[in-house]
Amino acid sequence: MASNVTFIGAGNMASAIFGGMIESGYPREAITATSPDDAMLAPLRERYGIHTETDNNAGVANADVVVLAVKPQIMHDVCAAMRDATQDRKPLIVSVAAGLTAETLERWLGGDLPVIRCMPNTPSLVGSGASGLYANRLVDDSQKSIATTLMESVGIVEWVDEEVLLEAVTAVAGSAPAYFYLVFEALEEAGVKLGLPAESARRLAVQTGLGAARMVQQGDADPAQLRRNVMSPNGTTERAVTHLEEAGLRQIFLEAAEVCAARAREMGEELGKQ
Ligand SMILES: NC(=O)C1=CN([C@@H]2O[C@H](COP(=O)(O)OP(=O)(O)OC[C@H]3O[C@@H](n4cnc5c(N)ncnc54)[C@H](O)[C@@H]3O)[C@@H](O)[C@H]2O)C=CC1
Ligand SMILES: O=C(O)[C@@H]1CCC=N1
Asked: In a 3-state reduction of DSSP, which class is residue 131?
């Protein structure tokens, strides 16, 4: 029988994940989502046919898996208010919150709990997510496999065996959709400056991004080789790529990834003091 999964918080991330689970055939009767606001739960009941609760403790009461999907800033209060119900039930805890460590979450929920931390990203909303997962000492193989099933319903999954590596996952996947959107914005602006209508520039740039990503994913060659295949000697691409390299693009991405990872750590430390 399918595990009962309760989502605490029913926003973007939660609805992406349970939407993906249902699309992959997970029984909707086994899914519950909570939010204090029933007005936001009503359309979810209608669209997905899942159970909903405005009381988090009621949601935890028959859960095998509790997915924590509220904002990190309110997580402490949400966990503290669920402590007794969680300790009674001892479900698997899966958190998608940025920064908060497994130790912090376990402590806030009263201790002695299997906790999986997950760093997903927003393309999960369209089934093309990329998530990093880390399990604490109390998680067993069957629980790892449940978490893999949950997150693979919205994209790919990479397990890490050291929690600190989730900061790197945040830098190259969790936050990274925003870097690609920035590149699309910049290419659209450049296309417009060179005379294209904005809509054409956007369509061309986005389709190119999609095509380039698909070629890398097919795995015939690594990105460096695929890049060289576009670069005819003394041609247009060589001129553009040389400019990007000389302007320090690689170093800029490295620095962005470093400040991103550092902020994940800082958020965890700040919020973990509670
Ligand atoms: N947006 C992103 O790119 C990513 C977000 N995350 C993490 O996902 C988590 C959720 O983020 P989003 O879904 O984007 O936020 P959201 O704002 O869309 O959803 C949060 C939900 O929590 C509900 N909520 C508020 N107070 C509550 C309470 N006391 N009890 C139960 N539910 C309550 C709200 O009604 C809302 O539905 C965050 O912890 C964030 O760090 C992780 C990776 C990527
Ligand atoms: O920006 C943030 O803090 C969250 C975590 C990863 C993506 N969005």
From this structure: strand
User: Do 205 and 260 share a domain, yes or no?
Assistant: yes
pLDDT of residue 155: 96
- State the total domains in the chain: 2
Question: pLDDT at residue 258 above 80?
Answer: yes
Tokens of 158: 């990479």
Tell if the pTM clears 0.90, that is, is over it: yes
- On whether residue 269 sits in a domain, the answer given is no
d(CA 180, CA 185): 9
Is 38 among the domain residues?
yes
Q: Is the CB of 98 under 6 A from ligand 2?
A: yes
Question: Considering every ligand atom, which ligand is closest to the CA of 39?
Answer: 1
Q: Which atom of ligand 1 is nearest to the CA of 15?
A: 13
ipTM for the complex shown? 0.96
Domain that holds residue 89: 5-161
* Phi and psi, residue 66, nearest 5°: -115, 120
CA–centroid distance, residue 24 to ligand 1 (Å): 23
Q: What's 48's domain CATH number? A: 3.40.50.720
Answer yes or no: do 134 and 239 share one domain.
no
Helices (H), the chain: 12-23, 38-48, 56-60, 72-89, 102-108, 141-152, 165-169, 177-193, 198-218, 223-230, 236-246, 249-272
Quote the percentage of the chain above a pLDDT of 70.
Answer: 100
**Res 219: pLDDT:** 87
Q: Is the CB of 72 under 6 A from ligand 2?
A: no
Which of 131, 93, 185 is closest to 16 using CA atoms?
131
- 140 with 245, same domain: the answer is no
> Are 20 and 133 found together in one domain?
yes
Check whether residue 206 and residue 83 sit in a common domain.
no
